[in-house]
Design brief:
The chain is an alpha+beta fold and 481 residues long. 30% of the residues lie in helices and 27% in strands.
Amino acid sequence: MSEKWYQGYEQYANFRYFDEILQIPRGSFHEEKISDYIEEKVKTAGLSYHRNDLGDFVIRIPASRGREQEAPLAIQAHTDMVCMKTAESSHDFTKDPIRVYTEDGWLKTFGTTLGADDGAGVAMILGLIEERNTLSNPPLELILTVQEEDGMGGAKGLDFSLISAKRMIGLDGLRLGSTSFSASAVDQDKLTHTITREPAEGQAWRISVSGLRSGHGGNNIGDGLGNAIKIAGRILYALDTRCGIRFASIDGGTMVHTIPPVCTALFKSPASGVELREAFEAISAKIFRQQAEADPDMKLVLEKCDDCLCASEAESREILDLLFAIPVGAVKRWYGHQERIILSYNLSTSHTDEASVSFDYVCRANLPEDCGELYESAKLFAEKFGFGFARVSAYDGHTVGENSPLTLNYEAVYSRKYPGRFERLFMHAGLDAGTIITAKQMDDFIIMMPDVKDVHMPTERMHLQTFAECYEMLKEVIAGC
């Protein structure tokens, strides 16, 4: 029998469950198998539960003896994962188990996302179910949601009448010993412009942008990382200004909630190759200087390509203008806390077909007073440049007190082992917990999670020791509620 990756951690129930979860395909909107797996575990435990048509669960663990009259506590995680892989990987997320190995205390994969976001949270909840008879706990409401990584549909589809708790522990974060007292509201919109294909004068050309580091479209939006679609748009606009071009296509990005690392654009121009290359080198040099530290491996390429039909002159003008002018990146920061991004925009994907070009535009805001402006600003930008506009999804953020009872409880538990290292984080990313907190008007919330790096990326990895520590601390926090 081959050696398990969690050798040395066999005594922790969450490790065994995470190993089983690694075998189950669970991309967003394809959570049927993980939901069936969870239901089997809950039925075996004989617990009361509700599973809706989406695959969400609300599961009840009765209070331990003597704690029956205490206020209930909700514990929440999501069952889906982001399915990303390297170009070299042949992994099929619809059927293949996630293959893993350990290195220097970290659990890693062979070129795919690990799914610790949020399989680690699911595994800890299943561990609590297994160990329910040895816990010290108030009444527990375990909430498992689907579709968190793509629109928060699971949280929105919950029957909130089944939830009575006014306090909650979210098992979906970035590292042990930190909690998020604020997470952003998110508005995801689709901008679409029609294209009337016609011949255009000149040679056809291709611009390629690649080698960008990329990152999470919320957590990393203030890090200065290059946006491949925006960079391609700047190049196209510069070439048009100096040489005159006609737009044909632009395709880029990978996932809606990541900063796009690649982009390819096609156009035609009557200008000579010498003129175009001079203009290209001039704008490229400026971009390279700006991105030298953030994206040292960036590649910008201009090359001839096969002939193509282009957008009309009027359509081309509107598309190029929008690409150049549309805001991308961190727009607003908290005075006195420059690390706190409170308003941002991410042009995350672009797609062109014969009749149209479309963009996914994701807007985030942490302050409630900014949330209403997200939709209006995106809509106004689209309409001013002749684009159609449609909201794809929107969900709430959350803000609770930095010293809420659960926060102080978690800090006390963590500080017994790591004095002075507890962190209260302001997070510029969305959680489906925000939808639950808003719906139930909760005012006490923490996040508990082991150390997980590079979420949503093929380099995602989880620290084994913190996975063990997080699970044990979770039980202590529950006991101290």
